[in-house]
Design brief:
Blueprint: E1 5-12, H1 19-29, E2 33-44, E3 49-54, H2 57-70, E4 73-78, H3 84-94, E5 102-104, H4 119-129, E6 135-136, H5 140-147, H6 152-160, E7 166-169, E8 178-185, E9 190-196, H7 205-218, H8 223-239
Parallel strand pairs: 1-2, 1-4, 4-5, 5-6, 6-7
Antiparallel strand pairs: 2-3, 7-8, 8-9
Length: 263
């Protein structure tokens, strides 16, 4: 069986913990073949992002046009966009392929809180990209920032009204011994997925989760199944995480794919 092609459109993280490299690993580990278009180059380590350098929006448009014309893209995962122009360029391409599932991880800040999206970019995400989405996967902080609401159910109501078919609000930033992730749909349904909290700081959790969900959708899984499977997978990558640098731990997205025994 040919692996479905999953296109990651995201930023480049030199540590490999997040961004394009994280997406490529998660897509491959979950059964897809990754395609990629880089939106931004970054200067960062496992502690923080020092600089973000968006690519040329026209070049991104040309690259996406070539990929879609040549390859049967089965799903798209969106991460860090970097600029209003890039968000609009991506939306313009996605609008011509309305039948392809699209998952957005709305990256607004780095793990340590460094802002990566100003007000203009946040509005561009809502105005241009949300109408193209099958699913958005904001954490609770991102959901509140994007919606202007505090109650998570109200956040979901406001964000779903912007055009996304479903919304997964992850609960890692909320207090409690367990993490509650909530999947909301336009029909008003809310399904809660509860997972144990691992007492560490991680770099690339949102990328891992959203890329895994996109791969599940590319494999024609129902959205509820794709979300549940991806949450389980992501939790396992965190349980096997390593801390190679001086900052956050990096998920091991290949934890069950080692070709040889470890010494």
């Amino acid at each position: 069986m040919r692996r479905p092609l999953v296109l990651s459109i995201a930023g480049h993280d030199p540590t490999g913990g997040a961004g394009i490299q994280a997406d490529i690993e998660a897509i491959g580990a979950c059964g897809g073949r990754a395609l990629s278009v880089v939106t931004c180059l970054t200067i960062q380590d496992t502690r923080t992002v020092f600089r973000c350098m968006p690519m040329d929006a026209a070049s991104i448009t040309q690259s996406l046009q070539r990929l879609f014309a040549d390859l049967p893209v089965a799903a798209v995962k969106l991460g860090l966009t970097g600029s209003v122009e890039i968000a609009r360029a991506i939306a313009g391409i996605l609008a011509t392929h309305p039948d392809i599932p699209v998952v957005l991880d709305p990256v607004l800040a780095s793990g340590d809180g460094t802002p990566l999206a100003d007000l203009a970019l946040r509005e561009a995400l809502l105005d241009h990209l949300f109408p193209c989405l099958t699913l958005a996967t904001p954490n609770s902080l991102e959901a509140r920032t994007l919606s202007g609401e505090q109650d998570l159910a109200r956040c979901a109501e406001r964000l779903l009204a912007r055009g996304a078919e479903a919304l997964l609000i992850t609960g890692g930033h909320e207090p409690g011994e367990s993490i509650v992730n909530r999947l909301f749909t336009r029909e008003g349904a809310c399904v809660e997925h509860i997972s144990p909290r691992i007492d560490r700081e991680f770099h690339g959790t949102g990328c891992t989760l959203s890329a895994a969900i996109a791969t599940g959708l590319a494999l024609h899984r129902p959205i509820e199944d794709a979300v549940e499977t991806a949450l389980t997978y992501t939790l396992q990558t965190l349980a096997h995480a390593d801390q190679p640098g001086h900052g956050q731990a990096l998920p091991d997205r290949w934890f069950n794919c080692l070709p040889w025994p470890q010494r």
